[in-house]
Fold each of these.
Amino acid sequence: MCPGPMLDKARESEEGNLRLLNELRAKHHNQTATMSATPSILIEQVKLLVSANSANSSAINHA
């Protein structure tokens, strides 16, 4: 086999591997960003629940 086609095949494989690596890096970056945002979202949700619970308790106590 000529070295030309083998080099082309190796180059295609390397380009495919780089593409896959970049996709995995992007996916990891997105997961990391999501994970770091989650606690603050949960804190906001808890604040809303506590606020709603307090409002309900006040309404019940004044009824």
Amino acid sequence: MSKIGFQINTKIYLINLVLKIFNEFNIGFSVGNDSPPPLNRALHLSSLNVIKIRAVMMLYFLRHSSA
């Protein structure tokens, strides 16, 4: 898979992940300081998943660039 294809698949995965989290908590898209706690938790979980995915991507590219 090309680098561009990998990036597109990753972005689609992230969008689906965020939508799944919102759906799981049965919440809408109002974001702000007055957001209910489930939304804050969903945003926190999605942020952690983005960090994990970026770490995996970095390791993947470091591994393949050194070969």
Amino acid sequence: MNIFARILLEHKLNRFVNSAVKRAKKFTPIDDPFTYLIEGSGEKGKQLKASVLARYQKAAAEIAEHNAKIQKILEAEARYRDLDILKDPQRYSSEIFDPIIADLGLLSLFDRRSIPKKLSCVQEDANFIKNNIEAIKKQFSLHETLFESTQYYSSSDQTSIAARIAAIRARLKETGIRPMYDFSILDSEDEYRNRLNEAYLNQNIKSKIFDDINGCRLDDSQRRAILTDDDRVLLLAGAGCGKTTTISGKIRWLIEHERVDPATILVLSYSRNSCRDLKDKIGEKIAGIKIDTFHALAYEIIKDHEERKPLVDDQFEAIFESYFDSERMSDDQVISNIIQYYSLYLFSSMSTDDQIEEEKFINYNNLQSLKNLYFRKMTFKKEKVKSLQELSIANFYFLHGIDYEYEKPYKIDTATIERRQYLPDFYLTKYDIYHEHFGIDKNGRAPQFGMGEKEYLNSMAWKEKIHQENGTVCLKTYSYNFTEGDWVDVLSKQLTAHRVEIQETPTEVKNRLLSRLSNSKSFRYLKNLLRSVLILLIDMSIPVDQIDALAAQMSHDRGEIHKYTLLFKICKDIYAFYRNQIDSRGEIDFSEMINLASNYLQQTPQFKYRYVIVDEFQDISNSRLNFLRRILDHGRAKLLAVGDDWQSIYGFNGSNVSSTSEFSKLFPTAKILTIPRSHRL
């Protein structure tokens, strides 16, 4: 080997050995050393090769030891992470960490600057957990029970929530170490209360109590409504959605699960019939529960304080019905008002041919009496028409002495292979004038026809073209004229413009019509509407001479003024008749009785309840609402109000609808829930 080869070999060897020595303190695995091939011959060459190999083998051994330490540390880290101590510390004792910590202790042999930060953290964590395993177990147990709840926390339970949070924080502090689990929910009392209540609902929603309520298995929305035990709860549901069944379920839950004394539960409704229905459906669990009307409860409160006898439900009904048998029904103006409102406005707010609205009309529980009328749509001339708005138009013509024919074939032949003969809605025989009523909204749309809208609009354009081409007169009214309440004005102006005489209805015709209608289902609905308005007027204690002003207040559109003027003229006359009867008997009416009961309530300690359930809450009046608030405050009771937020399609149904639509304003901390689907077949 020449001198240059030796020098090169020495240089490479020294560089390799020096590199291994320098890297031995760094936490970095060292690659396997390369093999040096030494070429040469002679004794000196062999000696040099032996020297190089010896030094090489020593360096390789040191490298292997270095890499083994690193591997041991990495395996210790993996074993530690596999333990996942915080997931369930109860399974482990401090001894399990000893071999891991021992292996991690090898990190001290290395230059600290070269050790990955995550390994340093693992070593610190392992030592911390080994020394504090018992404290961690306590925190784990505390966190596991963080959302356990055997009760529903209402908005008035904030003191209890604050106390629970304080107790948890104190126990957390007692562990003596930083929080190892997420307790940040404790920073918000409201959020923590909501989480506790959700846990309570999930824990109890499968209760067997709900599997059979009046023979029905409750769905999740009903169960959640029952379990939601806040201070003020409004439950909204339409007809057939199981409201009464849900009320029954609430009472059973309170008595059987919450062990509430039945005597501290009050159920209020609006008539004795509805109370009787509730009693029948609640069944055996009724024992001790008070189910009453507002008026009956008010009477019970004031009977020991007042000598005057209150008017009870039956007497009110008797007075109301006697009006229709009284001499007032001989008054021509009274008859005229009733006949006009019945024929022109009772059904007129319904969208023409609007299947969606008409379905609501049929299904709404207070309108069942109109079911037969809906299917028949019979005019005063006993014709069957296609829509309720056409019914109103036909009756208008009849009442005002305008002869007409319904769907008389157009006088000119229009039949083709594609279309049958044109049948206009109305034909005014004396004046040779046609009248079409189109079911469109103000935007020229007919969405009620769905996929058939385009076809309907094309048909509408075709009809208009027929009259234009043949020079025939065609009056036009639209569905939106009815929804805006101005259809009578719109039609009257067109009739006047074409010199059609609009006559007053003869008295004998009105009397004959009233006699014919008085026993019909549709007239009973009119009486129900008038009864509702009368009760509202009584509850609001409105003086008779101020009733006329209500028409303008109720009218959202100029066209509605005539409708409400007629309605309140009728109600004003009934109200005056009612007041006269009450005053002559020296009795207390509903409104006065409820106001007196509100005042006397503080003097009657026995009327204290923990739970008050109000059925048909959408019908509540201001006086009843004030009375209810007094009852709630008197016993610090919780309220479940059950109602229907669907407003009457007739524009006025005598109820204080805002009591449901603005429930959150009445009770700012209220919960509002819904039962979304119908349970009726």
Amino acid sequence: MWVPGASQMPPSTKLCIEIILALLCQGRLCQAPVYQIQVPSRVTAQQGLCVLLPCHFTANFESSGIAYKYWFKDNDRDSSPAVATTDPGRALREPGGRIRLAGDAPDDCSLRISDVKAGDRAHYFFRFVKGDFKFSYRETQPLVDVTELTEPPVLGVPKVLLSGQLVNVTCQAPGTCSGTPPQITWTGGFDYTARNVSVALANGSVSYSSELRFTPALGDDGKELVCTVTYPAVVGVFTHRAVRLHVRYPPMLLPWGNCTVRGRGPGGAATCHCAAEGNPPPHLEWRLPDRTLPGDFEGPELRATTWARGPAVSGELRGPAGALANVSCAATNAHGQSQAALPVVPAAGFSLTLVVASAVGGSLVLVGAGAAVAWKVVKGRTSPEEGEPLRRKGEEEEEEEEEEDATRGEPLARGLRGQALVRCLAKPLTPLDLPVTCTRREGGTVMGPLGGGARPIKQWCHRPSKARIGRLKPSPLPWLEHG
């Protein structure tokens, strides 16, 4: 049997009262306890955030006097400083309102803790006082458990980031606490503007977020954007979330695509070259006056082949000169299309095109006709860790002789992967045969149809088999060097 105030009585007195009441209890004299409390036995909070302990209680509210509510830690006495109270004359463990009673209703004893700290972990009990009636609910002591902050912020990133188009990215801090506002910072390695946004919610809590505005560029593809949320009220508490940017852009046909013609009359043959880049990588098409051919095609007279690496795509179309007298190249992806007519260039003499296909990924597309093409990247090293040039002993003199016999072209590209200078060296050779893929040391690629009569010196270029399928077979080229 429940007896008001029994928890504060000596055991013998409590037992006597319970026996007497049990003997006298009849009908309406035996009623439910006057003081009851409804509160969860346990709530969990993360450091830096806030927690609400919902609570309602019953008592004799008809008693005269002012009602006061108190929350104490489990080992406190009724006369100890309170954790939270509505009594202005009672001392508090921690002034400032970080821990306070949240409800205004007479039967509401809800407790709110902001800027949760590890020291807040404890059992708590509620006490109610009104006039001469005083009662502490010690038999029900809920536990406030405190854990480390593991909840990351919520990032709102558009599904598609288009190069050159302004975008908004949001970062919402965990929790909706009305305590000390969190600090939200961004890192990403590009220019941006950000502003903090706070929204007051209906229940008195606050949502904190930051809005980032920036215009993605081609160079931002693959960069990591990080939002970090720091809670200054609790030392060392922060959380973050990162997202990798995928910047899309429509295809761009790279200049100097052409069709080279060898021979005259019905026996003449033509080879057309085209290169483009985009994200996602575009699909190439060859548009003739009477039909359109896909990038990879095998027919009685015409044959088309494409090579792709990263965002760069290179294509070749072969066939009779008469059938390829009027050819356009088109590149298409989900964000647009680019098309251009290819000029016809006689194969006699020297014809060369070097295209920087992707300054972002460090890729090159090399297109030549009727000539052997040599390219050299002279890079300004900034540290010895970058290694020695890809050159063997005894090759310098041999390569210098080749340069004396060759025609030195003008620099066609600068700024690739830092301080890079690309020069073209060329001299007539046999007709172009098979495609060659050369992997640059910095991770880029040279792609294009190159002659097959070179002497084997270099070991880092590969030519596919004649069937153009299967594994790559090493076929070094002597006129490719890195310095």
